[in-house]
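SEVERITY: medium
COMPONENT: batch folding queue
REPORTER: lab tech (J.R.)

DESCRIPTION
The queue accepted two submissions in a row. Attaching both inputs and their returned structure tokens so the on-call engineer can compare them side by side.

ATTACHMENT 1
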Amino acid sequence: MSITYTLDGVEVIAEPSDTILSSAARAGIEIPTLCFDKRTAIYGACGICLVEVEGVPKLLRACSARPQEGYVVRTDTERVNRARLTALELLLSDHTGDCRGPCKLNCPAMTDCQEYVGEIREGRYKDAVSTIYEAFPLPASIGRVCPHPCEDACRRQMVEEPISIAFLKAFAADRIEADGDPYVIQCEPDTGKRVAIVGGGPAGLTAAYFLRRYGHAVTIFDQQPKMGGMLRYGIPEYRLPKAVLDREIEIIADAGVEMVNNVKLGRDIQFDALRAEYDAVLLALGAWKSMPMRVPGEDLAGVHGGIDFLERLGLGERPAIGKRVAVCGGGNTAMDCCRTAVRLGAEEVYVVYRRTRAEMPAADIEIEEAEEEGVTFKFLTNPIEFYGENGHVTGMKLQVMELGEPDASGRRRPVPVEGVTEDIAVDDVLMAIGQGADCAGAVADELLTQRGTIACDEMTFRTAFDNVFAAGDVTNKGAGIAIQAIAEAQKAALCINNFLEGDEVRAKVPYFVTQEKTPEDFEDEPKQNREKMPGLSPEERRDNFDPIYFGFTEEQARREASRCLECGCHDYYECRLIRYANWFDVHPEKFAAETPRDREDVPVVSEVIVHDPDKCVLCGLCYRTCDQVVGKTFLGLYNRGFSTVVNPMVPDEARTFCASCLKCVEACPTGAMRSFPAVERKAHIL
């Protein structure tokens, strides 16, 4: 005789043999559990399937509790959620590993670097590009110009050198384009909602891509003749060929994004009109104003803003400069300016930087290549005056500096050496000490911060107006690298979509389990040097804007990709523990303690299965599945209490049987069980 009860307001019909968990699953209601499998006997180990029943004083485990006629069961009460949270935090406090590779976690856009590097290793280039497009839509462009924070976190550098993640990204995108198989954006059905985006740089293009994928009608307005923003007008051709950028923008346009150029906010279109005409507006105007140095003589002819200089170049001009050029600054924009000056014919090019090379924010490769091209670096010097004749700069006075105590950024603060200065003769100066937003007259005054950027909430990207959002260099923190602007746009697009659908307008930060590694962990890893990118010699590249890199060959790319240590969990997308952890605001660190388990050796269950006790939460599914489903006893528990571990019982029969079974691997909810082909397993262990 069937039983009728209520679960979260839904009437559920259960059979006498049902538990609350099994009947809920049949009704399409998920109750979280790690240790339950309908093929095995009820175990009740994990403690996260708790539910509250009206009139019953204690919480019940849904995996073992039988429903009764008229029960009123709730799965989301404060008491239930508090108990589940505690259970999850206890499990996570003893669960060690890497949910995602440190490369992905250090990428502002959370690009799944490990996944696409693995796909390149296997020759699956279209899949690799699809993986990248899950994070952003400009792989060929960003792969060429990104300062690659992913590589800064790559653990391969504990062996020899980090993997060339950015160049591999560009390789995959170039390869499918060369094969005549470009990526095609798939969009949801049209929603009838309209979004205006102001700014066609990396942030605006990324937001447009995601919003179009969600099914919204998107129009980008941009003040420049072509889309691309700083990618087009702030990065020279030798680093990013504009034909590459054009192809990637065309893919976005082909998805149905309307692009309108030569339109400036506050001049050709008005802020209030956009708000009224569109369901949502995203402001992604970028930061196009070179920051002043505020030193005497800055208004002399020949003293230029670095961004202004590069913008003129991007517009097709060939700025006239003298034979002696000084660039002030130490970032990648400064490197673009000094290397461009070389290509425009300057004979003496200086980079003036107030700290040492070790503190320079520019990428090491940019500094090295600038030196190869003849640029002179004047470290520990700071301009204090520009002077000239007939209104044009002829020289600059430099204050000699030394490093003092660290500042808020952690870098040692440069302080003047009293009475010690230096003079250099110059014909032109390019100031590349930073850039800012210029929104005056373009948007409502109440949106602006004291710095001239647009104020928005960092989790919702909403401004003072409900339907107006902002992202990229124009927001609170100001200018950064392109991938940071892309990351903001990615989240802002999600918030806009939620707003248009009437959902919570918020970008949530996911929880991940991480672990620390040291070089000692990789002592036995075979050395394999990073692939050298083929390209032009310094002599060949000094007098032209030809692309300096040729790109990896297929053999190089696959060889480079094979260096990946595969740090992230192989079972992340199937891991129920991390999925449930992200249902709650977990803080397992409050239960963290030294584990008494001896985890020096990874148990090899058979020739094809490895068990990782650091990831194991002792749910028992592996050995119960082996015993109760398969009818074997190849696994068991060893020791008692906190020292308990899953221990392989390895009779000779397991050596061949396990290769065709793998049921324990399939049942594991946390990725603690992993299968390897015999050869791959050996390579992994070595």
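ATTACHMENT 2
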Amino acid sequence: MASETTVERLRGILEIVRLANAETDLDALLALIPRQACSLLEADRATLYLLDKGSGDLYSAVALGLPNKTIRLRPHQGVPGLVYSTGKSALLTDAYADPRFHREVDAATGYHTQQILCVPIKNRRGDTLGVLELLNKRTGDFTPEDEDALSLLASQIGIALANAQIYDGLRTSLDRLSRLMKIGAAISSQLDLDVLLRTISQTTSHLLQAERSTVFVVDPVKEELWSRVAEGLDNKEIRIPLTAGIAGLVASTGNPVRISDAYTDPRFNPEVDKKTGYQTRNILCMPMRNHRGQVIGVFQVLNKRDGEFTSLDEQLLGSLSSQAAVAVENARLYEEVQGTLIRLKTLDRMKSDFLNAISHELRTPLAPILGYTEILLAGGMGALPGNATRGIQAIAESGKRLLNLIESLLAFIRLDQGEMALKREPVTLSSLLASVVEPFRARAAERKLALSLDAPEDLPSVLADPQELTMALNHLVENAIKFTPAGGAVGLHTRRVTGADGQPGVEVAIQDTGIGIPADQHEKIFERFYQADSSLTRQYGGVGIGLALVKQSIEAHGSRVLMESAPGEGSTFRFTLPLAE
């Protein structure tokens, strides 16, 4: 049974954790942690160390008893540095007798350390955020039980500290981001450069509390800056030499300029004020760079309403000028892209027309080639010499493969142009499947594969385009045979099913015991011209459009091709067709 002291200590830890989790202000939380830890374990002093990401040092974010001093330690320096570096707690009952103790801190602060209890503070991922160090227990020495209690507290405090750090960073950025959202929305939705930059200019003036904003665009031909958008000029255009004035300086050097008193700065060109009648007091000027780093314009803001422009204003304008640069580039490129797109569409249509024409031209002479080889092999033109039969069979086989390739190209053109139009009608599935399988039996036998068909004659008719369905099945069976090693099996199976929509249908499955497909390739193999392994193209042949055509055809039927496959375990492709009414 836990002692009364242990129970009270646990209650104290829970209360500190409750207070820490309720505190979202980072400074308040940092002050709370060492104060409460001292009270819990009756320590004389406590220090909370955090990492300075800039220098890599540990620094005392809060040091009780040292309100105006900051302690800095390198990682591995002193007990806090070692605890931070190792992520393990440390308990010293005699500090000056322990080599881990860093005496210089006492020398600098005038404090005499006798005992140290130090634990790491970590976030949920186990990353060390800081170190909590207690010094000199008021009654007795720190004990292992104290170490366990402080470690437990630190493990919970770490979560609250991480949350507070995140919240503090988010709060700092939230206002800036929210003020940039309007400009970001304008840039993402507007390609008219005049309208876009006018919106940005007006929003910038409001954002930075400035009287006016001007956007200068670089004219590289005339070596000038000219204003596309300038508030208060009533559409008047300003042109100045590329190196003149503050805007010219920013354009030529690529560096931002912030001036608190324009007329006392020799870089300021008062000629613009003389032409416009405007009195410039202070200036914030930022270059606009494209993605190649070239200055394509200058973003200038004039006369802060409530004082001078600050470094935060400079950061904000830097973000805005980056977005403005994107807008300028997009506007300039928009017309070029539109023209290029039209040319590409024309070329794409020419490509499809060429493939279509050449496919038809190739198919025309193939018809008599295949016809005469069939007549010769059937003996219609007399008996063939014994050594000629094999050659003519090779011609016939190659001709059929070429014809299949041509048909695939023609189907690809339909796929590419989105011109697949189904002619659906009631189809006797058992007969259609038999007509698909039969031409493959000789090839399966030659490759020593078992080719089977499970399609009962009493299967109900389905609604499908027989030509497109036959093409899809041919590709699936051909792939199954192609990628199944000798001694394997390929089978077509059917069964009645009820779809997800409750409608009855017939499922068709093409199953093989072939080489299989890795899981990360399951979606990609349905892409045009994709091969799971480029070496497969050389080993097995094909151009990689068969499964893309299958996918398009089956989806045009209102179904979806489902696949189950794993390397060395074969593949199964299945889809469901609706019953004919």
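NOTES FROM REPORTER
The chain has three domains: 4-170, 189-332, 420-578.
No errors were logged for either attachment.
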